[in-house]
Amino acid sequence: MNSKTADRIATAIFGLIAFIIVAILIGLFAYILGNGLKHISIEFLTTPSSNVLGGSGIRDQLFNSFYILFLTMVIAVPLGVGGGIYMAEYARPGKITNLIRSFIEVLASLPSIVIGMFGLLMFVNLTGWGYTIIGGALALTIFNLPVIVRVTEDAFNSIQGDQKEASLSLGVTHWHTIKHVLLPSAFPSILTGVILASGRVFGEAAALLFTAGLSTPRLDYGNWNPFSDRSPLNIFRPAETLAVHIWSVNTQGIIPDVVEKSAGASAVLIIAVLIFNLSARWIGSKIHKKITATK
Amino acid sequence: MATTLKEKSNSQIMDENRRNDIVLEVKDLSIYYGDNRAVNGISLDIEKNAVTALIGPSGCGKSTFLRSINRMNDLIPSARAEGEINYEGINLLGDNIDVVALRKEIGMVFQKPNPFPKSIYENISYALKFAGIHKKSVLNEKVEESLTKAALWEEVKDRLHTSALSLSGGQQQRLCIARTVAMEPTVLLLDEPSSALDPISNAKVEELVVELKNDYSIIIVTHNMQQASRISDKTAFFLNGDLIEFDRTEKIFTNPSVKKTEEYISGRFG
Description:
The structure holds two protein chains of two kinds. Chain A is 72% helix and 0% strand. By secondary structure, chain A is mostly helical. The radius of gyration of chain A is 23 Å and the shape is globular. Chain B has helices spanning 2-8, 62-69, 99-105, 120-130, 136-149, 153-156, 169-181, 199-212, 225-231, 249-254, 259-265, and strands spanning 22-33, 36-47, 51-55, 79-87, 90-91, 106-109, 187-191, 217-221, 234-239, 242-248. Helix content of chain B is 36%, strand content 25%. Residues 8-18 of chain B have low confidence and may be disordered. Chain B contains eleven helices and ten strands. Chain B has a domain at 48-66 and 101-265: Rossmann fold. The termini of chain B are far apart. By secondary structure, chain B is α/β, with parallel strands linked by helices. Chain A binds chain B through residues 92-93, 161-173, 176, 180-181, 184-185, 291-295, and chain B through 1, 70, 72, 75, 77, 100-105, 107-108, 110, 112-119, 122, 126-127, 130-131, 161-166, 176, 179-180, 183.
């Protein structure tokens, strides 16, 4: 076989692989949205759920999902970005640094159900909190942290053109260089990583089963006191998220319209992740353009 | 800034021996990467307000030497230097040297243009602001002054707030020179500043270097022999980490005293 033929075959194979991936993606989206969209209505989004009655909604689950995602990111992003900066800028190359890197990789590959069980021991039993939003957010932080550390480290290491040397050679300190040159340059990559991690967090069920729980108390959306039991903002209340709800109505639900409800909830989940991704990317490129003064 | 350096190393001042026209006095300088010696005990004096060219084949230690002057080798964990580089009577290699202050005094321009992905204006104001200059009028003045010195002002004055990455390679390199000059250093280290540029940009940078020598002491690493002979006053020839010959540029290029120098200059190796 001559090299020209080999080249053509390689091109065809990679084209085929790309086609398969896109086809799976489109098929999946079409299936979920096709089945679910017709069950989504304002009423579906604004009524609380029920385990026994038909015609219930996903209001609280939707809120819980966003709230847990928000709390997780509030904890995980500063920690993860800080850890990544340490790994890229401060850790001296050597055995200990390599060991830390291996630990982070192991942490990243832990199955989420294991993190859920760990969360049960730590954030539910040991702390005595029971099933809480904050427990769920902490479990998801563990799930999420290694990814953000890794993404940040990679983003710092792939900054182009010796900007670090340029800044240091002008008599600027290391920390100022990190804040004003390296972090802005790494920002778009870090943001992309955080978005991908958010998608995972938003759709995560296993780690939350035993930490945030399977129930939501009756919430009063007019109550903004975060210490009140009926306030949606209370971080020490149990909270069933959308992904957990899909799992629970399918396995335990006795409502008559299980299929419709889970199809609708799945579509909402996907749409939410999609909107979240696209808007975050848009914001990211806006901020990047502002920082770098490009048009 | 010099005050911090001076305070810290008063004991090291050696006023008697210092000649006024010497800005850097290098004594028995050896630089190691791990166990590997990259520079072997070199000694030379760098003249004030002159251009000193460092020439020699790749890997001869000239860039390593250059980067040791403003302590950029500190970034390489395995690098270590022995000997002395005296600046205003202070050994720059001392442990007590404030490298941040040192780098304000001894600026550097790199081989590949490396502007920050910020606007042209911010590329220059960035380090000035860090140095404590926040007044808009002073910043504007300094930006214009340094861009003028770098022969870039006329080309960019109407688009100071567009991205520096939109400039051509040659303009980017002159911006890098401008941003270094804006810090008002006394010594400028240029590490092959025009090797990545086209011939026209190269000529502009060369012109600029000759121009800048009135205000700064310049050390330039170059692979380009014509460049060294055109713009430098003194030339140092490095080979395998040794300083083979250091003399007036005319002497090095017309009548070198060491045979190796002559062979290198006439292109027989390297």
